[in-house]
Amino acid sequence: MFTSLFVIVIFVGDLVVNGNAALFSWKETLLIFGLVMVTTAFILPFSYKFKSQYLLIASAVLFGLYILAISFFFRNLNDRLRELIQEFMTLQEIQFYFLAILMILILYIASWLLSIRIYERKVF
Q1: How far is CA 56 from CA 48, 52, 60, 62, 124, in A?
Q2: Over the Cα atoms of the chain, what is R_g?
Q3: pLDDT digit string, tens, across residues 61-90
Q4: pLDDT digits (tens, 9 = 90+) for 82-109
Q5: Euclidean distance between the first and final Cα of the chain, in Å?
Q6: For residue 108, what are the contacts with CB-CB under 8 A and spacing of at least 6?
Q7: What is the 3-state secondary structure (H, E, C) of the chain?
């Protein structure tokens, strides 16, 4: 629900700022939902396993490492990611999209089951 609301806010913001009334393509919408599901699949088990203060410290450290990596080692990392996403958006093979959806769903379900197992062990 949050992701859907976010997509709507982006659309309205684009309409207000740029005057574009074009809706997102189905590829862009799939990309947004896929990235959110992959991110959630990694965050969910960690949020059940560790306390909030440790997660906050780990997030700050990872963000710092990301900034250092971009500053010293991969100066054009964001440009490369942008190019990779653009290439993904130009693909026409429907089978590729179905395979990506299936892999994301399997990852998300596995994460969900792992989170349930961590929660059950933590409670009992």
Answers
A1: 14, 6, 6, 10, 26
A2: 18
A3: 989 998 888 888 877 877 888 888 788 777
A4: 888 788 777 777 777 788 889 989 999 9
A5: 31
A6: 37, 38, 40, 41
A7: CHHHHHHHHHHHHHHHHHCCCCCCCHHHHHHHHHHHHHHHHHHHHHHHHCCHHHHHHHHHHHHHHHHHHHHHHCCCHHHHHHHHHHHHHHCCCHHHHHHHHHHHHHHHHHHHHHHHHHHHHHHC
Residue owning tokens 């062990």? 121
Q: What percent of the chain has pLDDT over 70?
A: 93
Are 49 and 118 in contact by the 8 Å Cβ rule? The answer is yes
Assess contact for 31 and 88: CB atoms under 8 A: yes
CB-facing half-sphere around the CA of 105: CA atoms within 13 A: 7
From the centroid of its chain, how far is CA 11?
18
Measured CA angle at 39 (ends 120, 89), to 5 deg? 145
Contact of 104 with 38, CB cutoff 8 Å: yes
* Six-digit token string for 100: 């990506």
